[in-house]
């Protein structure tokens, strides 16, 4: 007898409450200052350590931080019976990945055929106190090569396009500045010339006036960025100290611009780090709550400060070259980048009902719906042909799960996280019961990009 038998889809076509993993990276906000920490404390009923950083809450099936299904016994009594028949004890919870492998039909046919029996996306909450590394994510071809040659560092063979949706004011570096901005940087920061070489610096300063082939311009930008990132430690420290001393002096005479202020902040967080110099080459973006930034493969970026929800393809592949104590792969990073220039596209969300905005980046694996429902009002989230996860970020209410002729009613509250099988409609009512501090229900739902199904 097999450990798994195919029993009625009705039995398992209902939301699964999840327990999710937290990552304590040193750049995270500490203790109760961290939204990640506060959500994790609600989930785990654990006291937070005020000296511990709570950086990321992972919601998905990636092996570095897999979720567990909490109401496993209630949903899978038939499966528990199978365990008993085999002389095994039915555990109180199992990983979401294992549960999906035993119930793959809940993913929907198209998702199952394309990505197999696991979630193609990874959803996170991030609480950022200080800058993350200067980094990029490989495309599928490079990810496969990196995983094959260094599996201890690059832990999977998947690409990692991603999107950050701001919960608070959120700062990031993303993509290369325009030629015009780079020309201005080299005029304003003459200390960089020594690392670039005068001939390259002069060519960069003149590039904005040229009309030659963009591919030639990319080659010049690549050579320049590589020269900066590959400079020796002593060269970097000397150049940085000169820049910092000049900026501190000029700060007494004028208001520094935002990029200059950022350079001083990063130099305090990561003294003598080449990543501080790379700041001059990258766009500095400040998102407002409700704005989102998406990043394709091979685009340089670094999150600086703030809190967000983040969604990506299921991967943890990161190629780093600055602002980090972790492994740096400068040669790979400089070789893999696309060297596209200009400001990144910021998404504000598209309304799909009176209370919900959808953020759909140009990636198949994911999109995110953000809903804010006033007290006493209701929201209907239509069924999707693919799976999704739901985070109750604030407030409380009731959630009716409708599948065919069946309906399950669940009370929901801040900190609850659910896996939602394909084909389920969610009818949600905000019921704050006169709570003066929270008169709305705030939800985030991440799922496969709807364009996949059309």
Automatic annotation (TrEMBL):
Residues 16-176 form the Phosphomannose isomerase type I catalytic domain. The keyword Metal-binding applies. The active site is at residue 320. InterPro entries: Man6P_Isoase-1, Mannose-6-P_Isomerase, Pmannose_isomerase-type1_CS, PMI_typeI_cat, PMI_typeI_hel, RmlC-like_jellyroll, RmlC_Cupin_sf. Gene3D superfamilies: Jelly Rolls, Phosphomannose Isomerase, domain 2. This is mannose-6-phosphate isomerase. GO terms for cellular component: cytosol. Its cofactor is Zn(2+). PANTHER family: MANNOSE-6-PHOSPHATE ISOMERASE. GO terms for biological process: carbohydrate metabolic process; GDP-mannose biosynthetic process. Its EC number is 5.3.1.8. One of its GO terms (molecular function) is zinc ion binding. Keywords: Isomerase, Metal-binding, Zinc. Pfam families: PMI_typeI_cat, PMI_typeI_hel. It catalyses: D-mannose 6-phosphate = D-fructose 6-phosphate. Residues 205-282 form the Phosphomannose isomerase type I helical insertion domain. Coiled coil: none annotated. Binds 1 zinc ion per subunit. The keyword Metal-binding applies. PROSITE patterns: PMI_I_1.
């Amino acid at each position: 007898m097999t450990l798994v038998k195919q029993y009625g889809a009705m039995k398992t076509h209902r939301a699964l409450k999840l327990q999710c993993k937290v990552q304590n990276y040193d750049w995270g906000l500490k203790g109760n200052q961290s939204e990640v920490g506060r959500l994790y404390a609600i989930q785990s009923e654990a006291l937070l350590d005020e000296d511990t950083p709570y950086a990321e809450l992972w919601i998905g099936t990636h092996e570095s931080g897999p979720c567990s299904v909490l109401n496993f016994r209630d949903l899978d009594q038939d499966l528990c019976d199978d365990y008993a028949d085999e002389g095994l004890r039915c555990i109180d919870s199992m990983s979401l990945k294992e549960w999906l492998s035993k119930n793959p039909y809940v993913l929907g046919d198209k998702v199952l055929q394309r990505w197999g029996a696991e979630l193609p996306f990874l959803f996170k909450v991030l609480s950022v106190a200080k800058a993350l590394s200067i980094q990029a994510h490989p495309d599928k071809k490079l990810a496969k090569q990196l995983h094959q040659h260094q599996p201890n560092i690059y832990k999977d063979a998947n690409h990692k396009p991603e999107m950050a949706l701001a919960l608070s004011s959120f700062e990031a570096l993303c993509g290369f500045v325009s030629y015009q901005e780079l020309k201005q940087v080299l005029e304003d920061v003459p200390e960089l010339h020594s690392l670039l070489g005068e001939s390259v610096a002069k060519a960069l300063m003149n590039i904005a006036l040229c009309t030659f082939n963009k591919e030639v311009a990319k080659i010049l930008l690549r050579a320049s960025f590589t020269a900066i990132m590959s400079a020796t430690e002593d060269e970097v420290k000397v150049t940085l100290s000169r820049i910092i001393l000049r900026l501190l002096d000029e700060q007494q005479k004028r208001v520094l611009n935002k990029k200059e202020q950022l350079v001083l902040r990063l130099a305090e967080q990561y003294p003598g780090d080449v990543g501080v110099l790379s700041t001059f080459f990258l766009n500095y973006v400040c998102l407002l709550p409700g704005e989102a930034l998406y990043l394709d493969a091979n685009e340089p970026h670094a999150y600086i400060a703030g809190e967000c929800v983040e969604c990506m393809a299921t991967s943890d592949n990161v190629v780093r070259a600055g602002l980090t104590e972790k492994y740096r792969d400068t040669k790979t990073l400089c070789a893999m980048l696309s060297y596209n220039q200009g400001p990144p596209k910021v998404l504000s969300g598209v309304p799909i009902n009176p209370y919900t905005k959808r953020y759909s980046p140009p990636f198949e694996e994911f999109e995110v719906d953000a809903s804010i429902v006033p007290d006493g009002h209701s929201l209907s989230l239509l069924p999707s042909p693919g799976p999704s996860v739901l985070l109750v970020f604030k407030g409380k209410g009731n959630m009716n799960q409708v599948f065919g002729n069946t309906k399950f009613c669940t009370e929901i509250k801040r900190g609850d996280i659910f896996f939602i099988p394909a084909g389920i409609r969610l009818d949600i009512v905000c019921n704050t019961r006169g709570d003066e501090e929270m008169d709305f229900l705030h939800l985030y739902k991440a799922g496969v990009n709807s364009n996949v199904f059309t």
